[in-house]
Amino acid sequence: MDETSKNIPESDIKLPTGEKLVVSSSPHLSSPERTSKIMGRVLIALAFPAAAGIWYFGLRAAWVILLTTVFCVAAEAVWCKLAGKPVKATILDGSAAVTGVILALNLPPHVPFYVPLIGAVLAIWIGKQIFGGLGHNPFNPAVVARVGLLIALPAIMTTWPAPRGMGGTYPELKQFKTSVDAVTCATPLSIVGTLPKITGHDFYAESNFRKIDSPELIRKYFIGCKGGSIGETCIPAILLGAVLLVCFNLINWRVPICYAGTVAIITGVVNYFCPGVTPSPLFHLVTGGLMFAAVFMATDMVTCPITGTGCVIFAVGCGVLTSVIRIWGNYPEGVSFSILFMNALVPLIDRVSALRPFGHAPKKSGEAAK
Amino acid sequence: MNKSSRSVMTFKNGIHPVYHGKELSESAEIRTAPLLARYTVPLAQNAGKPPEVAVNAGDHVKKYQLIARASGFVSANLHSPVSGTIKGLIEVPGPMGVPAQAIEIIPDGLGEEEEPLPAMDWRTADPKALLERIAQCGLVGMGGASFPTHVKLSPPPDKKVDTLILNGAECEPFLTADHRLMLEDPESVLIGAAVMGRILGIGDRVFIGVEMNKIDAIHRLNEKAEEYGVKIIPLKVQYPQGSEKQLINAITGREVPAGGLPMDARCVVQNTGTAAAVTDAVLRGRPLVERVVTVTGSVVRTPGNWKLLIGTPVIEAVKLAGGVTEEPGKLILGGPMMGFAQKSFDVPVSKNTSGILLLPQDQAVNYRSGNCIRCGRCVQGCPMHLMPCAIAAAVESYRFDLAKKLHVMDCLECGACAYVCPAKRPLVQHNRRAKAEIRRQTAKK
Amino acid sequence: MLTTTLASVAVMGCLGLFLGLVIGFFAKLFKVASDSRGDLVTELLPGANCGGCAKAGCSDFAKSVVSGENPPGKCPVSSAEQVNAIARALGIDAGGGFKKRAVVRCGGDIHQVARRVNYNGVLDCVSAGLIAGGPKGCRYGCVGMGSCAAVCPFGAIEIVNNLAIVHPEICVGCGKCAAACPRGVIELVPIESTVHVYCNSPEKGPEKRKNCKVSCLGCRKCEKAFPEKFKVEGFLAHVRYDAEVLPTAGDVEAVKCPTGALLTASRHKEIETNDPEFSNE
Fold this sequence. Notes:
The complex is a heterotrimer. Chain B is α/β, with parallel strands linked by helices. Chain B has helices at residues 127-136, 149-152, 177-184, 186-200, 215-225, 244-252, 272-283, 314-320, 377-381, 388-396, 400-405, 416-420, 427-444; strands at 30-32, 39-42, 52-53, 60-61, 66-69, 78-79, 84-93, 99-107, 163-168, 206-211, 231-235, 267-271, 290-296, 304-309, 330-333, 340-341, 355-359. Chain B folds into two domains: 1-32 and 113-364, 3-Layer(aba) Sandwich (Rossmann fold), CATH 3.40.50.11540; 377-444, no CATH class. Helix content of chain B is 27%, strand content 18%. Chain B is globular and about 60 Å long. Chain C is an alpha+beta fold. Helix content of chain C is 38%, strand content 12%. The longest helix of chain C is centred in the first third of the chain and has 28 residues, at 2-29. Chain C is elongated and about 90 Å long. Chains in contact: A-B, A-C, B-C.
């Protein structure tokens, strides 16, 4: 190296003119991380449950996913156009696509085309842009849309086609032919709601649930052989996505663990003392949208707390609410409602869980960060 | 707490920059620069009051001759880097972007040198005399803040200091000046550390913290460390390991209280370059007129480390490094994380210039103020455990009171948050704004 | 069915009645006697809550008027009729106050100022000023990122070609912009004044000239022509706003400012907003 610099003749040295110098605040380097990259990686992780959903429910599911995503992106474009925001840059950050896919994976596989359309408008306009766009929305847009659809179109949103491989193997799930071609079925959770609940201390009442809560069936539920939304049925695919998300540092691992853990503990305790009230915790973990929500919905960066402690509080809150709704509520499923409710508390949780800045004496209790 | 199972010491949080850029210059030996045609020595090179000019235009000065005298306790002497003629007081672009006063010197090439001050035997000399010598030689912190060294070494009597830490972390990407210095002249660094330890009256707790990516320097220092009673502490490669507060925390486990100085944690932190300068001052009686500077960047033809005289215009340093391969998009004095972007190449090298970094246009960050997606990377990265995203949101809506409650005043401006931000939000600039605003409001009251 | 309906109605009715009584009771119990004149004055005030009177808002100002602390004329926004109406209503003296307007004393738009550096960062004057002194070559002129426009409660400031321009017909002279400007370029001037020196740099003439085409060079032409109307301090001319007779458009023509830093407000606005070609010459 020493040699080369000596060999450069004076006339050959090109000196900078300084014409193109830019001034900005330090730091002058930045990580290669970009918002669009983050969203892209989330989409990759979402591809696992999406693929599983398509495998189980056929190409119709793929059509729903595509339609929802396209509608979401279009809704975002329309809003940006009307509001005078940069259209291309907003679309390219990928957040609308992520919302679209998450929403689609939350829909039953055979919904008519207008459901994704209404869902996309609900998610992007009401759920996100009305608050100022990406990063400003207090609620997860996909969850807002799902809850909106569930309340507005309950019949469509709770009609579940039977997945591939379910056949007539377990009549407990009440299969019946509908007027259309598809065979519909009930989800395990909705059956729990129809079974007579026995209050009090009748320990033998567990026979109520035995039909749907046997180890063999739970294995079936686990691999995805059950009725449900496109993305929520196949647990291995969701777990694969979760591993990916944690490896990419896109979600806080505390959220899914604490969420699922809380539900397992609460349902476990209730099941242990009053088996007639609710099925086993394992049943709760593998049925319904719990795993999907815990991995992909509750963990949404924008709408969950920033600090680790905050995430734990948030996830435990979600878990408690989900368990309460599942065990005692009127709805068979409580995941969306619980996430929505806890989203509203995030600013408070952020306050309570603020970190102790370096060099500050530990906070006294009651003197929460303001 | 940090001496637990972990093999190397570190602090909590912080970031790991993807590209270190040190390979550009870390194997280049320190070279001496040839004499230039002109030097512009900035007056205000120390924190505190700038020194008063002690020469007149037309005067002939020798190398090492005093040209500006300290104007108070928190001020430092300034010496001529060459023998030559004082042309006068001119305005040069300052490192902060605001024009600064500088003494222009035209060298005569005679190489006349001022008689050196008598050498001292640091093992027996009176600590007060040693301190006096350091003040005489115009030493300032050479890491960046350029606080006069003699001030740092004379803590008020009510503050007990029991630890001296030499900062050899050099956690900034691209910079290798301290690394080369520790590698090529470990003895100067060690003696300087021992001298400062003696001045502070601490014998056994003198540490040099070095990041693990300078393993060769750690070995070189360790060869002689015992002789001078200095302990070499290997540190994890983690940014900002070289920040005073984080360094103290990593090595001693103590926390400097908010708004406090290192001496509040019974520590004094000095730069390794300063230590070498202390050795020069005490053993050879030479004031501080030159320093090791890394001239680097991917557009620089032959990046390397040079011993540059104070007052060397940056453009000359770039010339030494063989010029550029393409027009740079950014000129930074210091490291890329905390250094200052410059408007012009006429800015001179001063006592705290650790590096001259030229970034190509596509490598420098382009802040875009995208939407915060609350990913929390800034919170995970903040070595002060603040919430930069929340502070920035407060500043954007001019809620400086809120920013203050979020402890923005503790911000080091280390840049970890803005580095990791996926939306490329100018978080550090927001914090600077908030700090300036809050200081202004406090001053008003 | 009917009983259920009736029961619900009855329950709700009783509940409403009970709560209404509770509210009524506490309203009586904790009643604070308020001065109705304060409310009257508040109504007569413009309600912009601009803070130009140095009070927390219009109702705060109204209280101070009623208590005699401030004359009604202290409100910078109200017109003379409005002020007189308040004075008549309270039977007090209207009190004088100079009506003022804000003026941005800088003509250095994007075409005239040497933009020495490319700036990348927060688009805010104060924040930009912290980084290497901001994007424009001149360190004393308008930064042009609109911190003043952001705080103006009346929307009277517009940013054209990186230069803030006050629309005098909208401006009421509350002074919020002057407080927000990090460079102190914005000055509050008497409402009658129409001629201003559009330069704020105290630097020497040649230095300024390097940075900006329309800077005041301190040539004293204006001062020599109308010593009672203009004064030059250092290297910068000022209009004597406290003079008996303020300079007029005719004076500007007579002076023939060599750089065009001395202008009437209307001409300045015309140049900046309508005629970019002119400034580009």
